[in-house]
Design a protein that fits this description.
23% helix, 23% strand, 15 helices, four-stranded antiparallel beta sheet, alpha+beta
Length: 431
């Protein structure tokens, strides 16, 4: 089994990440920090004996590469999708197995109604129905030699770009995002493009879509957007719409807008049929993510919000942009432990059926359930430390918010811990 060695330099400390080439174990990382003695010729001397990965784990990585992943490790979403059972974005079930949200609402009327007020439900909308664009069109954006206009067409929102001589126009068929901003999916002869420009609510204007190059485009097509290959298109639609992929066939024209019941619970037609016929043998023919283990639960949300393993494979090195990946950051927390903790999974604090709670004090009870207990307590839920500063608004200090460059959006850092100064601004975001 081949081993890939990556060396990441962080000022005077170096981090060696040993990644197994097998995807399942690519997230098993050996972290060793050491000091540099002679900077001129990069000769390395003493190894700092702070090994964060036991030799036994390395043995497991090499010897067990062909076996299922061990309990307690985050997995890449691509590997989760190969396993039996439902997982978000999987897309192998036939369309006939979907009941639609109306079918779920027959029994779960209150929950279904509440879910319609969540950001997930608003994760996508046909571009012509975008509330963010309503009453704001036309919009203009100038970049280098190109000028882009967003206008209301007869049946769609049109993106057109000109260099003063030639003009290219593509319709926007979908708007992905919610109240903070939207990115648009353009279409040309069955091929999809991620719009180069997104609309941001904070600035009430167009700007370059996060993740796209800040360099000025070289041609009209690039000025309009980035062509999406089939895998990227399936992934984007899988996290922003419902049932865009069924029977492993990508059919975005048949997708339902937003993340609705069956994205998380799986196709529900069989469950609805069993419950309406009072058939006890089929009463469990639906997935309840609340029953997952802590690691599986966070990876479940990470199918769209990026698991720890996904983040490590995609980025490789820590940095400010990693704050966007909440499951990854959560598992960087000391209180997460080695095998996860059900008390701090995503759904322990966030009910996916209800609007996101914005008030910091609302989360105090979760923190104080452990950290309000006096040091030395024998209570099994007691944390080793209690906050010496305050017993309210815990997340305002221990989960600070940052506005990341190019996003015009504030993100909460889910790596729970003691933050010293502005870690983002100082470049000290290394966890």
């Amino acid at each position: 089994m081949d081993i890939l060695i990556e060396v990441v330099w962080i000022e005077e400390l170096q981090t060696i990440a040993v990644l197994a080439s097998n995807r399942i174990f690519a997230h098993l990382i050996a972290m060793v920090e050491f000091r540099e003695r002679e900077k001129e010729d990069c000769m390395l001397s003493r190894w700092t004996p702070r090994i964060i990965f036991l030799f036994a784990a390395m043995q497991l990585c090499v010897a067990g590469a062909q076996n299922p992943p061990a309990v307690g490790f985050s997995q890449a979403t691509a590997d989760r999708l190969k396993e039996p059972g439902w997982w978000p974005t999987k897309g192998d079930s036939p369309r006939s197995q979907y009941s639609g949200s109306a079918g779920c609402a027959g029994c779960h009327k209150k929950i279904a109604l509440l879910q319609q007020s969540t950001p997930m439900y608003a994760a996508s909308v046909p571009a012509a129905q975008s509330d963010l664009l309503a009453n704001r069109l036309p919009l203009q954006f100038h970049e280098g030699a190109f000028s882009t206009s967003v206008t209301a067409g007869p049946q769609a929102v049109d993106f057109s770009t000109t260099d003063g001589v030639n003009t290219t126009l593509l319709p926007a068929v979908w708007a992905f995002g919610s109240k903070n901003g939207q990115t648009y999916i353009l279409e040309k002869n069955g091929v999809y493009f991620e719009s180069r420009l997104s609309f941001f609510a904070k600035t009430e204007a167009l700007d370059i879509t996060p993740g796209q190059s800040p360099e000025a485009p070289n041609d009209l097509e690039t000025a309009l957007g980035r062509k999406m290959d089939i895998e990227r298109a399936r992934s984007c639609f899988g996290c922003h719409t419902t049932a865009a992929v069924t029977s492993k066939v990508f059919e975005p024209e048949k997708a339902s807008a937003g993340v609705t019941c069956e994205v998380c619970h799986g196709p529900g037609a069989a469950h609805v049929a069993s419950m309406t016929s009072n058939d006890p043998e089929q009463a469990t023919a639906i997935l309840n993510p609340a029953h997952l283990s802590p690691i599986d639960s966070v990876d479940f949300c990470g199918a769209c919000h990026s698991t720890w393993a996904d983040a490590m494979e995609a980025r490789g090195a820590p940095g400010p942009g990693m704050i966007r990946f909440q499951p990854y950051r959560l598992e960087q927390s000391r209180c997460w432990g080695s095998k996860g903790d059900a008390r701090i999974t995503c759904i322990a604090c966030h009910d996916p059926h209800q609007p996101l709670v914005q008030e910091p004090a609302a989360y105090d009870s979760k923190c104080l359930a452990c950290h309000a207990v006096r040091s030395g307590s024998r209570k099994p839920t007691a944390a080793k430390t209690a906050c010496k500063v305050a017993v309210s608004n815990c997340v305002s200090c221990h989960m600070p918010k940052y506005e990341l460059p190019q996003t015009h959006t504030v993100f909460t850092d889910h790596a729970i811990g003691v933050v010293r100064g502005n870690a983002l601004r100082s470049g000290n975001l290394t966890r």
